[in-house]
Fold each of these.
Amino acid sequence: MPALRVLLPLLSLQLLTFAQQYIPAWFENLPSAPAGYTLAVGYSGKFNSNLRARNYALNTAFTIMAKQLNIRLLFELEELNDGRLRLLNPTFKQFYEETILNNVKADYGVIDSSITAEGYFILIAYPRLERLNLPDNRDKNWGPRPSWVSGQLPEEKGFVYGLGQVARYRSWVRAWHDADEHARFDIGKNLNIKAESTTTSQRDNRKTIESTVIKQSYDLLLKNVTVVARWFDPATATYYALARAPRQ
């Protein structure tokens, strides 16, 4: 559905004040979790104290984990095209359970954390897991451009992927938040979307004008929706997120 693809990089474009350079390896590519456990990352910008930065990043990780475990996504798009004018009216809504969020806060473990010039990063596990051998936990530059950034999403049996992207944000924290959200909604589109089209005609003194209304929607409850990879393109100041979920 091309109309939906246009909408995924939505929200207002903002001016970029700096480029995010160094990140922990597990922020770019989420490690595999042991059976029965789930991993999630949290992040924050710079604060006056490392404790405040850590608390913000940790609360972000809690929310990401809760959304990852169980989330309801509602999407509606109504597009009007009459040959001269194209209007889009999108609606994105998501719901996650407060009970799940509280369960995560009560039984989590910090696997690793990192402070860079741009902010604070933290990797948590749920349920509590105190130690995990990470293949590479050093801070690093962004790796080469992944193929999924260009829309070549992985093809993995039993899973579906979604791509999110935003560009030229003033805050990299907000940019990653929105890129993650768009990736989740893209999964919903790739799983199950309903579409219907209605065409009407109206004639004036000289010609007939056709108007087409296209409606797309879905209402899905998803489990284990994980943002498994991120990538930043400094040349275009674009943030990309790749999410994965079990195919229903």
Note: The CA atoms of residues 195 and 216 lie 4 Å apart.
Amino acid sequence: MLLLLPLTAGCAPTDIEWTEEVKLHDGKVIQVKRRTELSATGFPTAKRGGYRYHELCYVPMGIHWKSLPQYKPEAFDVFGGKAYVRVPLGGCTACMLHGFPATNSIYFVWSGSEWTKVDETQAPEGLRFNLLSATHGDDDGAFDARGLITLADKRKRDSSIYRSLERTAARGLNERRALRDMCEKCKSIKIQTTSSAQVFMPSEGQSCRW
């Protein structure tokens, strides 16, 4: 039993929950609840593995989002009483599955009970990067997002992203430089996959009660 203690004591938590300040396009600051879970191990090189899902709740509007690990939302905003989410695509397979969007992203609007995918031309131009990206580190959990993450906290955690976005803002797309024109370039690549375009986790048991 004593021989096992150093191993179990060093395990990092896999569940990460926090409340996050989000600045909307009109300057209003709201709070959303977010949660994610990581694989228990990133063997052989990392202490923890990749994402299992991404979850977001905005209780005042009864909004709940829970997506598959490859679809991590980077923008949440409310325009004219309607909530929108923007999700950047992570590679050529995702670009192909979603029709090679020019903005390298897919968009959703909350209908009041569920999320509906909309074309990029139907998404508000002011839908910009405003959700925390650096949610954790490959450590013992000390860097994990916990409690209330303020706007200032987010600036520190995502400082490299914000610097890149500020330099590319003139394009009208608040996008990450590494993703620029990605889907357009992917059109010339022959892609074969058994994956589907499914974005959301199964709806059973989803709620904002955590």
Note: Residues 12-186 form one domain.
Amino acid sequence: MRRVLFIILLLSSFGTTAQVFNFKVDWFDNNSFFEAVFLQSKKVESISISVSEKKDGAYFQGARPILRYDFNANGQLKRSYKLIPLKNKIDTALFQFFYTDKNQLYKRTEQQGLFNFGYYFFYKNGFLEREVKINQTSKDTAYLRYFESTIQGLERSVILLNSIHKPFATISEKKSKSGLLLRKKLAYNRNPNYSEVSYSYKGKQLIQKKEQKLQGKELINTYFLHKGDKLDLVKIEKNNILIKKYAFTYTESGLPKEIIERDMIKKNVKIYKIDYTYLKP
């Protein structure tokens, strides 16, 4: 499922809006959740994230590093390092991203422990046509996928096919006339489950993200509150129950400085501190 979600991100040509954060990916994961255009404008070279947390009624624990992202001059992710706490040590997962001179991702690698995989992407007429996953150690092919894209007006549909060209899923997207992503859906051929996400805006600011899963039985609403041009508060509801809130602080130059997460279910608070390095002039 996670691999299909990555393909949705890769196939998506319709951005939400020119903002700081990317709401199409999971946060604090191996894929950057910062918009490339914003990073390019700020000339950000790398982002390091550490976290401290506490349960209700307890003190904050010491901050520990969890992530590092390295970017190129276009704001695209080159490398990410994810620190994974194990029983007796900290493991590091390394992900690397390679782009063509047209800024299209053509290779992605991931290394963690004994796992070492490479993903290769091939394009035709500007659209993703084929993906191959290779075991970098044994050089065996783990899987082969094909993609068939169709565009009609403001809607795009992509059929995912396996190695024998048999369809197994469809990704569809719709955008507004101004280029804002309005809806995307992932549906499986032999599975009644699906994932559908819709986006609402005020002007060009994203104000709500609505996601339905598991045949529509699971509903996740995310609300975005702004102060001027900055994101101030995010509230997440699952089946109409508030489960998480995020608040933000910023540097004088407008870069996010801290992300404060309140988990209503686990009854804890996490503070993610964000540090930057910048490209040399």
Note: DSSP finds two helices and 18 strands in the chain.
